[in-house]
């Protein structure tokens, strides 16, 4: 079981990592759906390989403790955890991520997820090639206009704390705001 302690932000610490073989995975099992009042909503559960945790009906690693990074660096961070940037492909999962961020007091963070239109402006796809849902309730508004903007310099998908964790298109090289949300390779 993992426990995290609060330490001063100016402390210098390095992560402790352990590599697991395919047969040595440990699993964390938590209720599949939990609301803000920690009331169990479903009888089913999700088993996640460590360091991933159940969020909604999937397993995610929300790397709130890392430094901010650009989207390509976030891809590499997830790959180092035997995963990839998360695919948040339905409103219920987006809601579960939002609730998780608030329940764990990390809602002030902004996060990269696995969508982009780098291969064709306006053609938003997940890393697996499937289409990113468009419109409300997935995408947020900026300056009164619904995202995503048609803009050659904003080609990577994030969820921004200042935008209530709705989808936002941003510059893939943006390094001051985002940390990765990863999901395991299945």
Give a quick rundown of the structure.
The chain is an alpha+beta fold.
Keywords, please?
single chain; C-type lectin domain-containing protein; alpha+beta; 186 residues; eight-stranded mixed β-sheet; globular; Mannose-Binding Protein A, Chain A
Question: What can you see in these coordinates?
Answer:
It comes from Meganyctiphanes norvegica. Residues 55-178 form the C-type lectin domain. It holds the Pfam family Lectin_C. This protein starts with 26 loop residues before the first strand and ends with a strand. It has a domain at 62-184: Roll (Mannose-Binding Protein A, Chain A), CATH 3.10.100. The model is unreliable at 1-7 and 13-44 (pLDDT under 50). It is globular, with a radius of gyration of 17 Å. The strands form three sheets. Strands 3, 4, 5, 6, 7, 10, 11 and 12 form an eight-stranded mixed beta sheet that branches. It has a two-stranded antiparallel ribbon with strand order 1-2. With 186 residues, it is of the alpha+beta class. It is built from two helices and twelve strands.
């Amino acid at each position: 079981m993992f426990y995290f302690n609060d330490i001063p932000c100016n402390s210098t610490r390095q992560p402790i990592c352990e590599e697991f073989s395919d047969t040595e995975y440990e699993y964390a099992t938590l209720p599949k759906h939990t609301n803000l009042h920690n009331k169990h909503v479903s009888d089913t559960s999700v088993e996640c390989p460590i360091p991933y945790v159940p969020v909604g009906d999937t397993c995610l690693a929300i790397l709130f403790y890392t430094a901010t990074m650009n989207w390509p660096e976030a891809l590499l961070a997830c790959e180092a955890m035997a995963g990839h940037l998360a695919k948040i492909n339905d409103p219920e999962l987006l809601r579960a991520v939002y609730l998780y961020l608030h329940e764990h007091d990390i809602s002030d963070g902004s996060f990269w997820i696995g969508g982009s239109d780098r291969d064709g402006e306006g053609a938003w796809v997940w890393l697996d090639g499937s289409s990113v849902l468009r419109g409300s309730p997935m995408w947020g508004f900026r300056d009164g206009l619904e995202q995503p903007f048609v803009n050659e310099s904003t080609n990577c998908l994030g969820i921004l704390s200042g935008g209530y964790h709705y989808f936002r298109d941003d510059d893939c090289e943006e390094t001051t705001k985002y940390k990765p949300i990863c999901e395991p390779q299945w």
